[in-house]
What does this fold into?
Amino acid sequence: MGEKIVAGGFDLSDRQRYRRKLQQCLAGLGRLLTEKRFDRPKNLMGLEIELNLAGSDGLPRMMNAEVLDRIASRDFQTELGMFNLEVNIAPHRLAGRVLDQLAEELRTGLGYAHRKAREVDAGIVMIGILPTLDGKDLVSANLSDVDRYVLLNDQIVAARGEDFTLDIEGVERLSCTSSSIAPEAACTSVQLHLQVTPGRFAQVWNAAQAVAAVQIAVGANSPFLFGKELWRESRPPLFQQATDTRPPELQAQGVRPRTWFGERWVSSAYELFEENLRYFPALLPICDDEEPLRVLDDGGVPRLQELVLHNGTVYRWNRPVYGLADGVPHLRVENRVLPAGPTVTDVVANAAFYYGLVRALAEESRPLWTRMPFETAAANFETACRHGIEAELEWPRPGRGSGLTRVPAVKLVRDELLPLAAAGLDAWNVEPADRDFYLGVIEGRCRRRANGASWQVDAFHRALDAGLDRQAALAAVTRRYSVLMHSDEPVHTWPAGPGD
It folds into this structure.
């Protein structure tokens, strides 16, 4: 009697207090939404890219702390694995020559970081999953030496209660286990942020969910893991399995995974935050002293720290984000669908396609999500991850009719979605020169049926045909990819083969 019940480093009273604080935060968010206290959007977008460190041999380098010391810029931060970095670009207003500005900032920042990393033979590689990663690389000893990563790993491991099973069947099958969440670090992505009003949140989030499959089809860049050729975009199944707190019996009972696509269209941001509380136990039940409802009663704006922290441990592919800027609350849609790379030009083209498309779809009088069941959007997402640029998707028939039809992703993009994306960029007042150049990159991928994943797979098989063994072929592909990545010519124009 009287002893604390300890679970995963936090006692039961910690978790009960945290649960109460989460409920208070959710009530506070509801009041903020009702009272219309949110900032009016300034058409702001944000961009983050997760990166890999690899040496001149193409193999990963576990030295992000040393590289960050050399870079010495607050734009670059650690990520989960010692072979990872993240670069954050300051928010930009979506207008004018913003796309070229983003590209130039990224080229300058990544070029500088690459030069500093090369001083210790650890260059920057922007790719969804580094092909040369091996099981021995993705172990807890190679997690970044940052308290929050160690704590997150401990809590997810404790919640699961057994080793994680990685079982992905694609072109080949990968089946192995891990005692930590370290395999998650293999997944390096691009995160696209868009500030929205509460009244527009649902339209933008629903539009982003509907087009996630198309983003993957044209942007897939992660076909290999642990030496196996899997899905054209292997990050989603890997991320889900590497963070899955559910032992098999809970999976069988239908408990939701912490990495998930979702299960319905929404009518407000509140619904997503409420789902987080209903479906997902706290991993990091750390409370601060803020009383959100009292802060609101006193005329202030609460930080809702517990709600923000909990939201960060639920890995939606399109995530709601609550934040404060100069004491004023705002909402963002964080799009987490895309893999990193292949080039700066490709990343900015993917961003242009996304921002244009969600703007146009969110403003349609007959929204896409009223004509497509959510289950179809989720199935499309998996299909695109499996097949990439060759995917065929279920899509509403054009015109005033109803029903769905199966259409090649490249045809759908060229015939229907690129014109919509162009109209959306026009609505953002993006300069036509930027609009045409970057959407032209997407059109070029569709015309040539080529993206990062297809280039990697083709180069890998050419290397095997040339007599290299599997590991040597993957290393050759990685080295050649790195050279072409830094040339910044878009991936659909890359020459075939590993080149060495």
